[in-house]
């Protein structure tokens, strides 16, 4: 299987969040982070609206397609379509704990069938030339994580996989909701660090509960890469520091610069019939913690959903942020002069 450069930082696949509009926004902030699609089931890819489901903007590269499924032939067929569409990586979901995923025999329940996962990965790897990777949990239900994680990784490694993204907590398939599964099972970062230490030839990326680039840098002392999830979505401005801090390239990108870079994409999509709110919903946290953030969110939320809403809504929201920032700075200056 072909391998790509190390993913020092990537943004997690998140259902209903990391759609193509979200990924383009994230790409305005970082040119180097690896981006992942929402999980697409093999059934959707093979039998659904393929043009819509697999569509992505060229600006998104490098971008990975995440698949959900457990039939090797179907996964191979879906992977071929994804590779033909231009995705830079095909990733198999072995971590999602939702009931819908379990009923379809994919996601985290596959942690109980590591030999099947390895068979699936062999099929994907044999079907495409781009890297085939796995995103998994450390275990499910009553599994002993040190056994379940290492067995899954070792069997997949025998099938040719060299890149694993590990969400460092168990999934409880009975009794916890998908939301609770993101918080309640305890994180076990040292187990993932140990996986890298004992399998140094493999590329190990850690995921789960990582909230800042300071935390990411601490993990990078133990593993090859860090995957951010909710932190990247709810406070996307942290992605603006990624290239400079983690890759040693360029300058940090400010939220205002990201808006300027995103603007042409929004205008093209509006012209193609996309509703403004489909794009602005991913921008709500862009100015998190900045004077004017509340006004930014309010204008995008209230004005962005109105019929015919256009680029002027973003301009108005940005002007409100800038105005409040200028006002705050002026007050600080006055206070300093008075002192």
TrEMBL record:
Source species, domain of life:
Bacteria
Q: Which PROSITE patterns match?
A: UPF0034
GO MF entry, a single one: FMN binding
Reactions catalysed according to its record: 5,6-dihydrouridine(20a) in tRNA + NAD(+) = uridine(20a) in tRNA + NADH + H(+); 5,6-dihydrouridine(20) in tRNA + NAD(+) = uridine(20) in tRNA + NADH + H(+); 5,6-dihydrouridine(20) in tRNA + NADP(+) = uridine(20) in tRNA + NADPH + H(+); 5,6-dihydrouridine(20a) in tRNA + NADP(+) = uridine(20a) in tRNA + NADPH + H(+)
Reply yes or no: does the keyword rRNA-binding apply. Answer: no
CC cofactor: FMN
The residues that the entry says bind FMN are: 13-15, 66, 135, 167, 207-209, 229-230
Q: Name one Pfam family in it.
A: Dus
- Site (Interacts with tRNA): residue numbering on this chain: 93, 179, 182, 294, 297
Enzyme Commission no: 1.3.1.91
Show where the DUS-like FMN-binding domain sits. Answer: 11-301
Q: Where is the active site?
A: 96
Which keywords label this protein? Flavoprotein, FMN, NADP, Nucleotide-binding, Oxidoreductase, RNA-binding, tRNA processing, tRNA-binding
The entry sums up its family as follows:
Belongs to the Dus family. DusA subfamily. Belongs to the dus family.
Record's HAMAP family? DusA_subfam (MF_02041)
| PANTHER family attached to this UniProt entry | FMN-LINKED OXIDOREDUCTASES SUPERFAMILY PROTEIN
The entry's function note states: Catalyzes the synthesis of 5,6-dihydrouridine (D), a modified base found in the D-loop of most tRNAs, via the reduction of the C5-C6 double bond in target uridines. Specifically modifies U20 and U20a in tRNAs.
- Which NCBIfam families does the protein's record reference? PRK11815.1, yjbN
What is the designated name of this protein?
tRNA-dihydrouridine(20/20a) synthase
The record's gene field reads dusA
């Amino acid at each position: 299987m072909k391998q790509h450069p190390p993913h020092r930082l990537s943004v997690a696949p998140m259902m209903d969040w990391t759609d193509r509009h979200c990924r383009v926004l994230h790409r305005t902030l970082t040119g180097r982070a690896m981006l992942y699609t929402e999980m697409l089931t093999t059934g959707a890819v093979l039998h659904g609206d393929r043009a819509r489901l697999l569509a992505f903007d060229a600006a998104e590269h490098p971008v990975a397609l995440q698949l959900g499924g457990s039939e090797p032939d179907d996964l191979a067929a879906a992977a071929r379509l994804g590779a033909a569409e231009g995705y830079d990586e095909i990733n198999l979901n072995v971590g999602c704990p939702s009931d819908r995923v379990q009923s379809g025999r994919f996601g985290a329940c596959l942690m109980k069938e590591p030999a099947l996962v390895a068979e699936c990965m062999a099929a994907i790897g044999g079907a495409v030339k781009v890297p085939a990777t796995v995103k998994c949990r450390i275990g499910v239900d009553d599994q002993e994580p040190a056994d379940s994680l290492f067995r899954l990784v070792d069997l997949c490694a025998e099938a040719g996989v060299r890149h694993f993204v590990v969400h460092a907590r168990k999934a409880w398939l009975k009794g916890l909701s998908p939301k609770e599964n993101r918080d309640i099972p305890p994180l076990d970062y040292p187990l993932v660090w140990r996986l890298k230490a004992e399998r140094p030839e493999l590329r190990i990326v850690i995921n789960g509960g990582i909230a800042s680039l300071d935390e990411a840098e601490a993990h990078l002392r133990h593993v090859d890469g860090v995957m951010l999830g909710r932190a990247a979505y709810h406070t996307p401005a942290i992605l603006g520091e990624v290239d400079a801090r983690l890759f040693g390239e360029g300058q940090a990108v400010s939220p205002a610069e990201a808006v300027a870079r995103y603007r042409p994409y929004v205008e093209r999509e509006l012209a193609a019939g996309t509703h403004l709110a489909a794009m602005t919903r991913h921008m709500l946290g862009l100015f998190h913690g900045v004077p004017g953030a509340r006004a930014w969110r309010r204008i995008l939320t209230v004005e962005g959903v109105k019929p015919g809403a256009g680029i002027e809504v973003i301009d108005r929201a940005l002007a409100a942020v800038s105005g409040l920032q200028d006002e705050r700075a002026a007050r600080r200056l006055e206070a300093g002069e008075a002192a």
